[in-house]
Amino acid sequence: MRISRRLLLLASLFAATAFARQPDPPGQVRTGEKPVNEAYLFAHMTHADYGRLYYSVSTDGLHWYRLNQGKRITDDYRGHPDIARGPDGTYYIAGNQSDESPTINIWSSRDLIEWRRYSDYKPDLKATPGYSQALQRIGAPKLFFDEASKQFVMTWHTPHLEGTPEDSERYWASQRTLYVTSPDLRKFSGPPHRLFDWDMGTIDVFIRKAEGKYWTVIKDETYPTLDWVTGKTIRIAHSDSLLGPYKELSAPISPNFREAPMLIQSPNGKVWYLYYEQYPGVSYGLSVASSLSGPWYQVSGYTFFSDWDKYSLPSKVRHGAMITISRQQYDALVKRFGIEKESK
After folding, report:
1. Facing residues of 247 across strands?
2. CB of 314 within 8 A of CB of 65?
């Protein structure tokens, strides 16, 4: 009888756990409430077609669906997609043919559907003050338009050491974030400058303005060890000025071996969603906070249990950029490209 009661109790506990509904992430709108942020675009590459442009969309910032039957949006674009909106509503996307290419290419679009080559920029990397040892590498150029100064900032990462068979990681640890400014993405300030004076590797850096400050979201590119436990994580810093100095570099927001962060506001505009990729193309993580200064916590996903998975992305999508769009823009993208009914 004791065994039967014990088994019955265990079975009841298992059933309760199996059918328990876990709480959803904060930031969603209630029924009948109008969202502050109506929809989102994820411009990304794929595992099989790295460096090309693909789209997925979402209306809640959590569940993402492919557009265009998983085909390229354009054959012209090459790079790590990053999109910024200019003062007149025109969108711009930065890229380059490869890290070894000396030129950054920029495309423009009025509707996020048709992209046209807009301009090219060839930075004189070795003219960067205090960084004459820069190698000819340009990684993941990213764009930010600053309303206050009416100028664009374009950032990218450039290393100063080659890897060796004994230490391939020294190449990545030597990455430093550089930038130039521009009023129109045709004329650029020069030469490039370093964004940070920290003696640490940084890649995948982008700038945002919120909560009365400027923020840089950063991948700490030093390899993790007991002496550098923050390596290969996503971190954040802030400044009162667009070009820094950036300070109070945060503790890791993500686990180790995460990259390519992307930041959006929730539908109700009160919560931040920070996505990052577990590389190489394994999965995505999601951390949330009510303020960019934190605290941050991770949302459950990629467990393949529906009650636990609180966000979903199409399979084999690789990194890029997430931006907020209107419902009208969302509908136009879906009408033009078609949408998958379920994430796969």
Report:
1. 238
2. yes
For residues 195 and 243, the answer to whether their CB atoms sit within 8 Å is yes
Pairwise CA distance, residues 7 & 3, whole Å: 6
| Structure tokens, 127 | 């003219």
For the chain, give the longest Cα–Cα distance: 84
β-strands 258-265, 272-278 pairing: antiparallel
Residue 7 lies in a domain: no
Residue 67 sits in a domain whose CATH number is 2.115.10.20
Amino acid in position 188: F
At 20 the pLDDT is: 56
Tokens matching residue 50: 């790295």
Give the strand order in the sheet containing 283-289. Answer: 258-265, 272-278, 283-289, 297-298
The model's pTM:
0.92
Residue 18 has pLDDT above 60, yes or no: no
The Cα–Cα gap between 213 and 112 comes to 28
* Contact between 237 and 218 (Cβ < 8 Å): yes
Q: Identify the three-state secondary structure at position 166.
A: coil
Separation between Cα atoms, residue 313 and residue 317, nearest integer Å: 8
Q: How many domains does the chain have?
A: 1
- Three-class SS of residue 225? strand
Question: What pLDDT score does 302 carry?
Answer: 87
310: left (phi over 0), alpha (psi -120 to 50) or beta: alpha
* Residue 235 belongs to a domain: yes
Nearest-angstrom CA–CA distance, 295 and 230: 16
